[in-house]
Design brief:
Elements lengths: L5 E7 L7 E7 L27 E3 L23 E3 L8 E6 L6 E9 L5 E4 L5 E4 L2 E8 L8 E5 L7 E9 L10 E6 L2 E7 L9 E8 L2 E9 L14 E7 L4 E9 L5 E11 L1
Parallel strand pairs: 3-4
Antiparallel strand pairs: 1-2, 5-10, 5-12, 6-7, 6-11, 8-9, 9-10, 11-14, 12-13, 14-15, 16-17, 17-18
The chain binds calcium ion (CA).
């Protein structure tokens, strides 16, 4: 659904199940995908259980001394991960999922400064741009839950495509409860939950990072899509004037050759 920008509280209820409250933030020009909610049979006031382990996203090992907040009325067996802070403009992408399928694989495809491609995944765990490690698969988990972590040090302004492949195990991406978090520096800059209504193909094309922007794709296909960000030769720019609110704004749009917008930058804002 389309909603005005803001923070939302979502009340979920069904006959015979414990009510549940979730929270979501809707940002400008950004699709917010909420996680799949598993309602618990029973009535409000009953108790549930909380189990799980908190792992380091770089090593997959358990972490001690963690404080944990628990949500009321939720029968939760989800494991968690925490990730050490990054400096600069590096990105860390952390994949977690449920028990089945047992093995999801993260892939990162991009270009080096000399124009040659690179592809980091379980059988090519790192790639170098000269002496700079541009991409590294820090952890490859093959036995459910994750975390599986990719670190990217973007050395060009060309697109870096991130996608997931259902490598082995029963079930499908749609039933995997897969979730991806993107960290830039010390900030969580993106969170995605796997779509549950886009079929049973094995590739989840999640997003691309290009020139500091996250371009969301979020499709499930029979082969990876690593071409949805238009290259600079076929793109164009347009200026647009927005006077619909109290303030007036001038935006610069980047568009592909079909004039489909993929990036929008606020150039100037003023009040009359
Ligand atoms: Ca894996």
């Amino acid at each position: 659904m389309t909603l005005p920008i803001g923070d939302y509280r979502v009340e979920i209820s069904a006959s015979g199940y414990i009510n549940f409250t979730a929270y979501a933030t809707v940002n400008e020009n950004y699709n917010t995908y909420m996680e799949t909610f598993l309602l618990v049979e029973g009535a409000d006031g009953e108790t549930g259980t909380a189990t799980g382990q908190i792992n380091n996203a770089l090593t997959g090992n358990g972490v001690e001394g963690v404080s944990l907040s628990v949500r009321k009325g939720w029968n939760n067996s989800q494991n968690g991960t925490i990730t050490p802070n990054l400096s600069g403009n590096n990105y860390r992408i952390v994949l977690t999922w449920g028990s089945n399928p047992r093995d999801l694989d993260s892939h990162m495809v991009g270009s080096l400064s000399d124009g040659n491609p690179f592809h980091v995944y379980y059988s090519q765990k790192s790639s170098y741009d000269g002496k700079i490690q541009v991409c590294n698969l820090d952890v490859d988990d093959t036995t459910s839950y994750g975390p599986e972590t990719v670190t990217l040090n973007a050395t060009t302004n060309k697109p870096y495509y991130y996608y997931i492949y259902h490598y082995a195990g029963s079930g499908s991406l749609a039933t995997s409860e897969a979730q991806i978090k993107i960290y830039q520096g010390e900030s969580l800059v993106g969170k995605f939950n796997v779509p549950t209504d886009l079929g049973n193909n094995r590739y989840w094309n999640v997003f691309a990072i290009v020139d500091g922007q996250i371009i969301v794709k979020n499709t499930i296909t029979s082969s990876p899509d690593v071409s949805y960000v238009p290259d600079s030769e076929s793109s164009t720019m347009m200026l647009d004037f927005d006077d619909t609110g109290e303030d007036q704004e001038i935006y610069l749009y980047f568009c592909d050759k079909n004039l489909t917008q993929y990036k929008k930058i606020l150039i100037y804002q003023f009040s009359c």
